[in-house]
Amino acid sequence: QVQLVESGGGLVQAGGSLRLSCAASGRTFSSYAMGWFRQAPGKEREFVAAIGWSGRNTYYADSVKGRFTISRDNAKNTLYLQMNSLKPEDTAVYYCAARPRLVPSVNYYYTPNEYDYWGQGTQVTVSS
Known about the structure:
Blueprint: E1 4-7, E2 10-13, E3 18-24, E4 33-39, E5 46-51, E6 58-60, E7 68-73, E8 78-83, E9 92-99, E10 117-118, E11 122-127
Parallel strand pairs: 2-11
Antiparallel strand pairs: 1-3, 3-8, 4-5, 4-9, 5-6, 7-8, 9-10, 9-11
């Protein structure tokens, strides 16, 4: 069983920055593929960013590329999402997700159903 706890959300003005954290339980965090997803009211959950177990491979949604950076610290069992140049359309509940299993192809990183564990979410609100 893997437990994920997000933190770092809040209210920020457009153009501002936030850093989300996701603390994971489990002694094998360093072997997990990890992802960030978000869900705005009335919309489906959407992919934001993902990172491979080593941290070398990262993937981003086009809408956040160049503004958001995903990273991980395997020694601290923690996943991060640095969000810069925030826009009102970034407003959503942000979730981290873990996939302890092998990732057969890059496409798996982008698909919510391919992740096995989810955090409770943290609210990010960007005012205009």
